[in-house]
Amino acid sequence: MQKTFIKNRDNKKISVLIDEVKNSRGLAFVMHGFGGFKEQKHIELMAQSFYNSDYTTIRFDTTHTIGESEGNMEEANLTNYYEDLEDVIKWSKGQTWYQEPFCLAAHSLGGICIILYALKYFKEIKALAPISTVVSGKITLDDFKSEDTAEWEKTGWAIQESHSKLGVVKKMRWLQFKQDILQYDVLPQVGQLKIPILLITGENDQCLDSQKLLFDHLATQKELHIIKGAKHTIREEKQLKEFKDIFDKWIEKL
Questions:
Q1: 156 vs 169: CA distance, rounded Å
Q2: 111 conformational bin, left if phi > 0, alpha if psi -120 to 50, beta if neither
Q3: Which residues have C-beta within 8 Å of that of residue 91, sequence separation ≥ 6?
Q4: Where along the chain do its domains lie?
Q5: How far is CA 167 from the centre of its chain?
Q6: Burial level of 86, CB count in 10 A (0-12/13-18/19+)?
Q7: Which residues form the Serine aminopeptidase S33 domain (predicted)?
Q8: What is the overall mean pLDDT for the chain?
Q9: In angstroms, rounded to a whole number, what is the distance separating the alpha carbons of residues 58 and 51?
């Protein structure tokens, strides 16, 4: 495994992990969700599945999150996550291991980023795995409404403790995030995608209904798996094992 730092379009450092396979079967990019990082267990498992199937595999931390890349989480939004994905792929095109078509896999906010990329650059994509993905800004804001979000509306700040990095508090300017995400909705266009698509979500995920809605809008080779007892981010060992088994079997069919 190799780690490197590249610059995005805003001249901020992005931390990138490359697991290169010589004479590889393909290339895959794996992206974390909002406030996540490339070493989260579910992100690592997706990367392992691709690598073990002889794919050169790329993971990265977006800017404005709690990983190794530059930025301030206060400024995080869907647009800068998506632009970082574009910038990582653009950089990859200059590397010796780059090849097309490639696979994209991601969680949550990363999920809609890879869908948006596939809609824009469909000729580059072999397969897509948007896990517990955002499908529309409006639907996501409705799905995650709570006492917390009511407080965020009042104060202008979204403040949460990280479940993946103990002791880390995530603080974001809520109104800019909200205004940004409301620009996005992939449902009107996803029926255009003609590549294999894997959806996995938790039985207790707030986004479960939107995953079913996305599945219904897809007009391609598609799978939807619902993991019993799992929430939006899959954390328990038994659930993670089921998650990886599903992922492994899907990659075998590509």
A1: 16
A2: alpha
A3: 6, 16
A4: 2-136+185-252
A5: 23
A6: middle
A7: 24-140
A8: 95
A9: 9
Tokens in use for 117? Answer: 């990329």
Residue 31 exposed, middle or buried by CB count within 10 Å (0-12, 13-18, 19+): buried
The Cα 115–Cα 7 span in angstroms is 23
Dihedral pair phi/psi, residue 152, rounded to 5°: -60, -40
Hey, what amino acid is at 57? T
CA dist 22 to 27, 28, 42, 51, 129, Å?
11, 14, 25, 11, 24
Distance CA 6, CA 4 (A): 7
pLDDT in tens, 127-180: 999 999 999 999 999 988 776 788 888 998 888 777 777 777 888 899 999 999
The CA distance from 42 to 111, in Å, is 13
Peptide bond into 130 cis (omega under 30): no
Q: What confidence score (pLDDT) does residue 147 get? A: 66
Q: Give the CA diameter of the chain.
A: 55
pLDDT above 80 (res 59): yes
pTM comes to 0.95
Strand bridging mode 55-60 / 13-19: antiparallel
Architecture of domain 2-136+185-252: 3-Layer(aba) Sandwich (3.40)
Cα–Cα distance measured from residue 135 to residue 5, given in angstroms and rounded to the nearest whole number: 30
CB 61 within 8 A of CB 12: no
